[in-house]
Amino acid sequence: MTVPYRLHFAPDNASLCIRLALLELGLPYETVLVDRGQQGQRSAGYLALNPNGLIPTLETPDGPIFETAAILLWLADRHGGLMAGPDAPQRGADLKWLFWLSNTLHPALRMLFYPEKHDPRNPDSLHAASCTRITGILDVLSAATDADWLDRDAASAHGCYLAPMLRWPALYGGTTDWFDLTRWPRLVDFAHRVETRPASVAAAQAEGLGPTPFSAPRAPNPPEGSAT
Ligand SMILES: N[C@@H](CCC(=O)N[C@@H](CS)C(=O)NCC(=O)O)C(=O)O
Prior knowledge:
Radius of gyration: 17 Å
Strand content: 5-15%
Bound molecules: glutathione
Number of strands: 4
Structural class: alpha+beta
Number of domains: 2
Distance between the termini: 27 Å
Helix content: 40-55%
Number of helices: 9
Largest sheet: 4 strands, mixed
Strand order of the largest sheet: 2-1-3-4
Shape: globular
CATH topology of the largest domain: Glutathione S-transferase Yfyf (Class Pi), Chain A, domain 2
């Protein structure tokens, strides 16, 4: 690698969270397109880096890292910024919400997008249940009094993770008319703040996401690869 980091990505996939973090931290990186149209995430070469066959993977000088939250936490710890450090009073709240994004919101979205993988016999009912569940999950986040990162101007690991996850339900997973971000004015404000950051503008350009990728998303038009 000529640069320290190599991001295996597909446009508008969870790799977008990592691209945002790399850009926020000003870190040099190169990208490798995982061609989802060809099931590139299941190729032998990719499985050697990430045996789960999921995007993203970040190659680092310490070896490949998979899992979006793990990569974000590792980058924050290694380079400083994006999260409260180990001894800061805010650390507990930051960890809590990062794990919540990873263990609660992200899996609920996966059930929405891939209901047939989670319940092959009743994918339609899982899809419907997922809409209700995601709405409730975002109700919880929107009401949280200790999720300071939602309201701050500064970049955060959480912001890099959440912003794409507010975009996807408006675009993917069958019917999308159930999802209306304006139900959560605090999240709309968050989306506006994130998408005007230079890192978001650069990421949106790299992946063809348009001018309002998080507050008013539209279908991507990526310069390379396909989002699905
Ligand atoms: N828990 C994983 C989930 C990643 C994930 O869901 N990636 C999606 C793209 S956004 C993927 O690889 N989908 C392809 C598949 O499920 O085969 C993480 O956080 O990295």
